[in-house]
Design a protein that fits this description.
about 35% helix; 14 helices; globular; 13 strands; seven-stranded parallel β-sheet
């Protein structure tokens, strides 16, 4: 099979060599786009990361595609309906960054609690004044956890080490886990009303877009700290700006933004597809957030450790090998695995 590994870093390539005896492997260190899609028209397997937006227009340019082995747990960057309708199997990496992401939650929280970035910048410039650097302890604070999957549970485990009280919400509460990790479940409204810190750990779905907006910010305690290492659209960033301006939210730590690719590559704003598709109001709000002194934004690196990257690439390669062997694993969308099919151009 012809395998296209896109958005792949140079240091990840040697691990992929194990595919090469039986497959033709091509590499690309940038996301897959309409602009470079012609390079991959013969690919039967595509392994992207989350910056490749695999919509109908792009997938239609890959007529021989049989498998998308995304190197992520989330699949919101893939048009799953198109894949199901066109016989494309989709596999993901469901478990790679529980501790990695959970630890980044507390990296953000501790930096905000102790003004670490400002303090370090100040001393680097030769200033040793403590003015404006008074922090707060985590001990005794209430942590509100939105979503108690693998990452949420690891966050709860770490929180107990800091002496925090945990209250959580989830659409599928696990009472046994709550008893084990000594926290209680409550409705979202109740969690928001008692939490000193709110941390989000939900997937990107139609139900979670703007899960936290003006209504939810109004429910929060004045002076709350908000952490988002999940997905950008979970928070209505315009509403967050209002809550910060009103001092309802004291600080925010964000590893994700709704219009992250366009913020990262400003030239994309002027691309004709971007103008048609991007929510420019959200894009402007993203830029405004970057200027708030009490907002700490990191460039989607919560997952980005050597250990997590190793687990991601190993699971992805195993997914490709399992598919080639006729027994796909970690399947999100199931499709036939035998017989490469050239579906030809489509106008879907």
């Amino acid at each position: 099979m012809k395998v296209a590994m896109v958005e792949i870093e140079q240091e990840e390539r040697p691990a992929c060599a194990r595919l090469e005896p039986g497959h033709e492997v091509i590499y690309c260190d940038t996301p897959l786009t309409i602009g470079n899609a012609d390079r991959f028209t013969g690919a039967e397997v595509l392994s992207p990361f989350v910056d490749s937006q695999l919509d109908v227009g792009l997938l239609a340019r890959l007529p021989r595609l049989r498998l998308i082995a995304t190197r992520s747990s989330g699949v919101d960057h893939i048009d799953l309906d198109y894949c199901a309708a066109h016989g494309i199997t989709v596999c993901n990496v469901p478990d790679y960054g529980d501790s990695t992401v959970a630890e980044h939650v507390f990296a953000l929280l501790l930096c905000l609690a102790r003004h670490t970035v400002d303090a370090a910048d100040r001393t680097r410039r030769g200033g040793f004044s403590r003015s404006g650097l008074r922090g707060f302890e985590l001990q005794g604070k209430v942590l509100g956890v939105i979503g108690t999957g693998r990452i949420g549970r690891r966050v709860i485990e770490i929180a107990h080490g800091f002496g925090m009280t945990v209250v959580a919400t989830d659409i599928r509460p696990d009472r046994a886990v709550a008893q084990r990790w000594r926290f209680r479940y409550a409705a979202l409204e109740d969690v928001l009303s008692v939490a000193d810190v709110v941390t989000l750990h939900v997937p990107a779905t139609a139900d979670t877009v703007h899960l936290i907006s003006d209504r939810e910010f109004a429910m929060m305690k004045t002076g709350v700290v908000v952490i988002n290492t999940a997905r950008g659209p979970v928070i209505d960033v315009a509403a967050l700006i209002r809550a910060l301006s009103q001092r309802r939210v004291a600080a925010a730590g964000l590893d994700v933004l709704p219009e992250e690719p366009a913020v990262r590559e400003e030239a994309e704003i002027f691309h004709h597809r971007i103008l048609a598709e991007r929510q420019l109001k959200t894009l402007v709000a993203d830029h405004v957030l970057l200027g708030f002194p009490n907002v700490l934004v990191t460039p989607h690196i919560a997952y980005y450790t050597g250990e997590a990257l190793h687990r991601i690439i190993e699971t992805t390669l195993s997914n490709i090998e399992a598919f080639a062997g006729g027994e796909p694993r970690n399947v999100v969308v199931s499709a036939p695995v035998s017989g490469a099919r050239d579906r030809g151009p489509t106008t879907d």
